[in-house]
């Protein structure tokens, strides 16, 4: 079963240095969907603890299975427009509407 449009939860504003968790979920897809977050239209890298992720100064943890995007301490650089995409290899992937977070 192809995924339906996921529901994204993105805070509209956050204080610098606080913990922010965004979530993305859809319930229809079978097999279960994987989730990819985007910021300003660019796919976010999955942080795997490799050198490249640290070199890119990544301040978040993205979980493609649960659909969460967790910032342990947000900075002004994390301000932007976020959306997520659900895909399970069947039918078209589905995106939620873009939501802006201001830090």
TrEMBL record:
SUPFAM superfamilies: Immunoglobulin. The keyword Cell cycle does not apply. Its main location: other. Pfam families: Ig_3. It is found in: Cell junction, Tight junction; Cell membrane. It is a single-pass type I membrane protein. GO terms for biological process: leukocyte cell-cell adhesion. Keywords: Cell junction, Cell membrane, Disulfide bond, Immunoglobulin domain, Membrane, Signal, Tight junction, Transmembrane, Transmembrane helix. GO terms for cellular component: bicellular tight junction; cell surface; plasma membrane; protein complex involved in cell adhesion. Residues 3-103 form the Ig-like domain. Belongs to the immunoglobulin superfamily. This is JAM2 protein. It comes from Erythrocercus mccallii.
